[in-house]
Amino acid sequence: MPSLKSLMRLALGAALAAAGPAAAQGFVPNRPVRMIIPVPVGSAPDLLSRVIGQGFQAKWGQPAIVDPKPGGAQNIAAEQLSRAEPDGYTLMTAPPPSLSINEHLFPKLAFDPSAFVPVTILVEVPNVLVVRMGLEAKSLAEIAALAKAKPGSLNYGTPGVGSTSHLTSEAFNFRAGVKTTHVPYKGTVEVLNDMLGERIDFAFLNLLDVINHVEAGKLRALAVGGQAGSPSLPGVQTLDSLFPGFISTTWFGTVAPPKTPEPVVNAIRDAIKEAFETPEARRLLGNLKGATPVLNTPAQAKIYIRADSETWKDVIVKNGIKAE
Questions:
Q1: What is the CATH number of the domain that holds 166?
Q2: pLDDT value of residue 283
Q3: How far apart are CA 271 and CA 275, in angstroms?
Q4: Which residue, 161, 28, 27, 46, is CA-closest to 104?
């Protein structure tokens, strides 16, 4: 006759077996998921979140509802995420600032970026050095030489202090040994408007924002920040070709609130990956020219974000950059 201990083991084993499918599934929402974005509607995080929402609707019958919370150098959205319940019903899709940059710019934040639970990096996009058409520089070497010959006379626009656009520009100044003048704007649209109007000389902006203007002959692309260049800009050299090791990309990732359980995060990541493999997603992503899907695991995304943080920290410290 089995001992009491043996019977208890059998009962526990049966209970675990019965719970197995539910545990493996991790998360099945019974109401819409809130997707915070730290930028306005119409931006890349908005489009990417809508792809995710379509995937959630197809898989679970529940969409992801986009909730824009722009402003505060993207810290407002991140603070809201930090206070959300870790139950899978609140996520954030964002570019780097609030996840890997702002912790090095601001003396104090109302949230801990390292406490967020990464779900996946959705796409990666190279930053591109573009100049106004009237600028005489036709190559990366020429704009470096022009900036060196006329210290402080060239100006560059960015969508704000601490953006990858700003940090890449300062990294360029440092590597080229030149001085140029920073002109911060409220957003990328304003930067582009003044560049198209020949009021600023150059900018490092992500490929998604500049590709249409470059193809239309309204801006000139001099260099791509990706290590291998970009098929969307054939013949355009990389930053690395003149300044070895100089890589500049931006990315968009999805993260969950602190302490979100691993099974929940894994279930969400699997649903996102499935969403991005659909024909409808590929059609929508066709609007994001030059974006390379990543869709890594939560563990890989965590390593990715920390590595990006260290890269920008180095630029911030070397150039003495502080939030304004």
A1: 3.40.190.10
A2: 82
A3: 6
A4: 161
